Amino acid sequence: MPNQVNVLVGGEAGQGLVTVGELLAGSLARSGYSVLTSQTYESRIRGGHNTFSVRAGAAEVLAPSESADLLVALDGETLRLHSGALSPGALVIADGALEGRPSGALGVPFGELAPARQANVAALGVISGALSLDREVVRKAVEDRFGRKDAEVARQNEEVLRRAYDWFARSGARTLTLEGAPRAGRRLLLSGNEAVAFGAVSAGLRFASFYPMTPSTPIAEKLAALAEKLGLVVEQAEDEIAAVNMAIGASFAGAPSMVSTAGGGFALMVEGVSLAAMTETPLVVVVGQRPAPATGLPTRTEQADLEFVLHAGHGEFPRAVFAPGSIEQCFHLTRKAFELAERTQGPAFVLTDHFIADSMRTIEPLDVESLEAVGAPREDVPVEEPYRRYRLVPGGVSPRLLPGRTKHLVVADSDEHDEFGHITEDLSLRKLMVEKRLAKGAILREACVPPEYAGDERPEVLLVAWGSTRGSALEAARILRERGARSAVLHFAQVWPLVPEQFAERLRGAREVVCVESNATGQFARLLRRETGVEIARRVLRYDGLAITPEYILRELGSAARS
Q1: Is the preceding peptide bond at 386 cis, omega within 30 degrees of 0?
Q2: Pairing mode, if any, of strands 360-363 and 347-353?
Q3: Which domain, by its residues, includes 397?
Q4: 410 with 491, same domain?
Q5: Residue-level pLDDT at 562
Q6: CATH number reported for the structural domain that contains residue 62 in this entry
Q7: Could you point out which of 96, 250, 327, 400 has its C-alpha 20 to 30 Å from the C-alpha of 347?
Q8: Are 261 and 338 in a shared domain?
Q9: How far apart are CA 518 and CA 301, in angstroms?
Q10: In the chain, what are the helix, strand and coil shares in percent, each to the nearest 5?
Q11: How far is CA 555 from CA 84, 163, 412, 541, 550, in A?
């Protein structure tokens, strides 16, 4: 029995493979296994070649796998493209109507097991039978997905599932039963986008604006689904410029606000970011990275917007940039972005990418009861009169009142201004205002999340990762240790500001440092050199649109060693 199993479902858009994958992931999670899903799909509604992978095991699953232990082919293209990626002893399940099935592949008569509209339920039943999953657990997952409002549809789904299980049992095919006792207790199965949305809500979000753009649209969709119940306002704007200005306006009025977008949409928002900085208005921006320039590959992944976000907005002002590497970090770092945006009265960023945004993983239930919302300014705070919104104070954080909520007049302007908020051309005051805004950077440095270190002390190989490459780097380092090499991972979940005192000795203490990132130019390695003086010459870079995997890291390390 395997420690982990990777199920790869392949087919065309419109064949329901996402439904199959999500139901399978839910069934495995309910059965107590650790689960990680990943997807590849083309930018089209019908046709093309798509895959949905579900990797599961009793131990924590950290990263996707390139090899398939169970390949499910809903079309011939899947067999052609992925038959060479089968692990030893892999099981292949294919639609019985497909020609050219490889020897030993299990041909399933999906057309006999279910009508076309329920073929995905039949596929789920056959896969679940191959994994020896309890039929009742799978049935409940299907019921929860499709509901029981239509009793006849629910009965049909249950019947299709039964026929699929029975057919697999009669086929005599071997199973791929996972070893290890499943974990007891309830766990969550969340995507990165869902975790960001929940983190925002837990922080006290009241207003979210967006213009639809892959991969961040699901954040707004999740918030919209919660809006009525939680009293949120979620607005789809006419464009990204309107979206960011709506969020700034709502925040100026006291509603904790967020915009979610991708690199192309964020390109239209950068003037708004600068406006938030000048008016000292809290703003959280989620940027889901994808391959660019321009439209690029809108449904693939990359980490090439780091320098863009780091320098977005004209002028000089402080900001925090987070890059979560796990579902838990998506939740907690979104909360921290809201906290720091409020504390520093300015912009904060959450930098995701298509891979982590789309991937679903099992996590332990989040303890939300003990978390406090990040509150808007209180109305009963005494202020020095006459009230000066931009009063020059040590640390740079001036007293912030909400317009119309007190007797005091609140004035703001996008031009340089005096302490009251009125436009000024006093150049000596201009210098003081720049220094006041920059002084808030000390708050960000003090609150900086230190990088996570995992592995051997003084390693032979230190993998430096940021954002979504965390899991693959951790698994690659584990494999290196199993091969006898001292190895470790230094993962950055906050990429700005950087505090070298937190990690520089780790870089200097390793025999060899390798930066792992999904871009072509080593943007984070360049940033580390700028801030620490440490040159990371060896890099594992990927920029073909696919996620970095442990296998990819090890191949790149091996090829570099051979060369």
Answers
A1: yes
A2: unpaired
A3: 382-447
A4: no
A5: 43
A6: 3.40.920.10
A7: 327
A8: yes
A9: 8
A10: 40, 20, 40
A11: 17, 43, 55, 12, 9
Residues 459 and 442 occupy one common structural domain: no
Q: Which amino acid appears at position 257 of this protein?
A: S
Whole-number Å distance between alpha carbons of 17 and 8 = 10
Centre a 10 Å sphere on the Cβ of residue 38 and count the other Cβ atoms it contains: 25
Given a contact cutoff of 8 angstroms between Cβ atoms, the answer to whether 218 and 240 are in contact is no
- The per-residue pLDDT for 511 is 97
**Structure confidence at residue 117 (pLDDT):** 86
Q: Is residue 398 part of a domain?
A: yes
Instruction: Round to whole Å and give the CA distance between 327 and 193.
Output: 9
> Do 10 and 43 fall within a single domain?
yes
What are the tokens at 176?
């791929």
Asked, as a colleague might, if the bond just before 291 is cis with ω within 30 of 0, I would say no
Report DSSP state, residue 265: H
DSSP conformation letters of 277-304: HHHT--EEEEEEE-S-STT--TTS----
Instruction: Give the Cα separation of 4 and 64 in Å (integer).
Output: 11
538 has which bridge partners? 514
Determine, yes or no, domain membership for 403: yes
Residues with Cβ < 8 Å from 529, sequence gap 6 or more?
535, 536
Rounded Cα distance between 290 and 468, Å, is 12
The count of domains in the chain is 4
Whats the size of the chain, residue-wise? 563
Give one DSSP letter per residue of 192-219, joined into a string: HHHHHHHHHHHTT--EEEE---TTTHHH
pLDDT for residue 563: 37
Side-chain half-sphere exposure of 258, counting CA atoms within 13 A: 33
144, 59: one domain: yes
* CATH for 481: 3.40.50.920
- Helix 119-130 × helix 135-146 angle, to 10°: 150
DSSP-derived 3-state class of residue 243: helix
Lookup result for tokens 């279910």 = 114
Q: Which residue has the tokens 């908020």?
A: 421
Residues 29 and 141 in one domain: yes
Between CA 279 and CA 263 the distance in angstroms is 24
Residues with pLDDT less than 50, the chain: 561-563
Final residue of a domain: which of 403, 421, 447? 447
Look-up: residue for tokens 């029975």? 166
Residue 547 CA to residue 544 CA, distance in Å, equals: 9
Q: Which helix (H) or strand (E) holds 427?
A: helix 427-439
CA distances from 387 to 153, 248, 252, 425 (A): 64, 22, 17, 21
324 and 359 belong to one structural domain: yes
CA–CA separation, 216 vs 210, rounded Å? 9
Choose one of 447, 463, 480: the last residue of a domain. Answer: 447
